Amino acid sequence: MATVEIPEDMELVYKYPESLTERHTHYCPGCTHGIIHRLIAEVIDELGVRERTIGIAPVGCSVLAYYYFNMDFAEAAHGRAPAMATGIKRVSPGKVVFTYQGDGDLAAIGTAEIIHAANRGELITTIFVNNAIYGMTGGQMAPTTLPGQVTTSSPMGRDVETAGWPIRMAELIATLPGAAYVTRQAVFDVPGIRRTKKAIKLAFQTQLAGLGFSMVEVLSTCNTNWHMGPVEALEWAKQHMVDYYPLGDTKVIDEVKALAKGRK
Amino acid sequence: MAKELWEGNAALAEAAIRAGVEAFFGYPITPQTEVLEHFSKRMPELGRVFLQAESEVAAINMVYGAACAGARVMTSSSSPGVSLMQEGFSYIACSEVPAVVTNIMRGGPGLGNVQPAQGDYFQAVKSAGHGDFHMIVLAPANVQELIDLTVLAFDLAEKYRTLAMIVADGSIGQMMEPAEMPPMRPVRPPEERPDWALTGAKGRDPNIITSLYLGAENLERVNLRLQAKLKKIAANEVRWKEYSTEDADLLLVAYGTVGRICQTVVREARRAGMKVGLLRPITLWPFPSKRIAELAEQVRGILTVEMNAGQMVEDVRLAVEGRCTVRFYGRMGGVIPLPDEILPELEKLDAECR
Ligand SMILES: Cc1ncc(C[n+]2csc(CCOP(=O)(O)OP(=O)(O)O)c2C)c(N)n1
Ligand code: SF4
Ligand SMILES: [Mg+2]
């Protein structure tokens, strides 16, 4: 990265986050994983906790997230990130621990691990990237794939009679007493990206304040496996995903509400 | 420290505590639930971590996480639970973080029963999980050995940054015997965690712990490193015990509970005029192959006795390489072979290789 001297009469208002490495990501052009990485990195910078944060990457397209985040990182087995995060946090209570997980990872193979971590009120933060598909393995049906949505393993469209219904994880986790802050956001446009960042920040603050488990479900796109252009994918997601997956908080305990107020 | 009466499972847990274990994650299963119960009481007392996980899959991944953080950590289970942990074993082995696990074996396959058995020898020694790796496998035959090997398991796991497994069975886990506990070691303070551990990248480059290596050459390099480490373990850490082998012309090979029973068989066979010795492997991996090969030059025949359909006998045959006759006797499903069934097998072997 080139370094530039900032003249005395100017103020630095925007910069490359310290919490990201300079490595180019392997994500497809148009993929929203990169945006979400950046939001997390900005939040960790703003909270000043990079040097005590430990991230856990999932199995999925973001399996190599540890190359892009400039902090200690572990790579979990498929779906097991919340269990690994539990192990890390329990023996390192002063650290900030977060998992980054896809929808196959979190809502299929790792369902037990996320529910029990949330239910125990583990002091960890989960960033849950819901793109309604298995991106990494080439576009198979995910537990979050919409009814009728065509994937390589639901070529006639998801038939809910045989494949069941898409799971609303933010609502499900919200029912658990250990969850302090659960929200669903989307990165389909600039206002959405700003709201998502705010939510991620509040989720980490919830952890830092020791209030309980926090999760931000981020509705996301996979233009490649949806077989769309990036812009078209964003439009499709706005039109179809948000209907089934309503945006907004599903759980905010009073202490988190106070936190949110306090920071304004 | 004086001898006290200890139940095997509680002794295992207490020995781990004395060895400085910082965290235990587990899931109840007979015949080792007393391990988890002992930890559930003692760990909070000592300000250490105890957590009953939602499954063995979660438990081993919690162990994996805590090990990545550089903590001394363990889990414990029995056969069906160990099968569920195998995913984690493989990840831990590739990531080269130290961890201790146990298998207090019960009768299988399937749900089987809760009687003592040794049906998981292959799983522990040859097939701990997907990919090329071995765990260090330690097999005690009594409560004192269970205590001593538990402490050793932590030391070896950390020395080689690998998995160490204690395999025993329900009869060792649930019997009570006088035994001596080691003194309490201090717990390693968090500031002294190893420099590879995930402790936050403060004033250093980030640490990454992964088992993903894209590219064939890349992953082959990792495998070569793992194999070199295993070779070193095989060269330095083989352990076994011998009984009356100096003049033996027949040899028993048996481990764990049945290894102990075979000590009685040796005495009875000697009384009947047979020159019988016993080799009891303590490390099942690495296996005392060299010593067995030496003894195969000395004896006429070897009888391997196990609580399974014949698993370790394959390693005995590999070690013997045809130098002498090798026969097998075993009972399955939780049946323990007794001296009066083993003796006639020895007599048969004696007659066969006269
Ligand atoms: C135990 C196991 N089963 C299956 C796989 C294959 N696999 C890799 S990624 C993946 C799906 C990932 O989808 P998702 O979590 O939605 O992440 P995305 O790629 O969409 O970001 C699967 C099934 C695996 N690596 N491990
Ligand atoms: S396959 Fe989909 S989720 Fe994966 S990087 Fe490409 S666009 Fe992103
Ligand atoms: Mg996905």
Short description:
The complex is a heterodimer of chains A (264) and B (354). Chain A is α/β, with parallel strands linked by helices and 264 residues long.
Characteristics of this structure?
heterodimer, A: 264 residues, globular, B: 354 residues, Rossmann fold, 2 domains, five-stranded mixed β-sheet, four-stranded mixed β-sheet, 12 helices, 15 strands, 43% helix, binds thiamine diphosphate, binds iron/sulfur cluster, binds magnesium ion
Any overview of this molecule?
The complex is a heterodimer of chains A (264) and B (354). Chain A is α/β, with parallel strands linked by helices. Chain A is built from 11 helices and 7 strands. Chain A has helices at 33-47, 65-68, 81-91, 103-109, 111-119, 160-163, 169-174, 190-208, 223-226, 230-244, 254-262, and strands at residues 53-57, 72-75, 96-102, 125-130, 179-186, 213-219, 248-252. In chain A, strand 1 (53-57), helix 2 (65-68) and strand 2 form a beta-alpha-beta unit. Chain B has 2 domains: 4-199 and 224-236, 3-Layer(aba) Sandwich (Rossmann fold), CATH 3.40.50.970; 241-352, 3-Layer(aba) Sandwich (Rossmann fold), CATH 3.40.50.920. In chain B, helix 9 links the parallel strand 11 (250-253) and strand 12. In chain B, helix 1 packs parallel to helix 2 (33-45) and helix 1 (8-18) packs parallel to helix 6 (143-160). The termini of chain B are far apart. The model of chain B has no long low-confidence stretch (mean pLDDT 97). Classes of the chains: A alpha/beta (264), B alpha/beta (354). Chains A and B meet through strand 1, strand 2, helix 3 and helix 5 of A and helix 3, helix 4 and strand 9 of B. Strand 2 (72-75) of chain A pairs parallel with strand 9 of chain B, so a sheet runs across the interface. The complex binds thiamine diphosphate, iron/sulfur cluster (SF4) and magnesium ion (MG). Magnesium ion (MG) is lined by residues 60, 102-104, 131, 133-135, 142 of chain A.
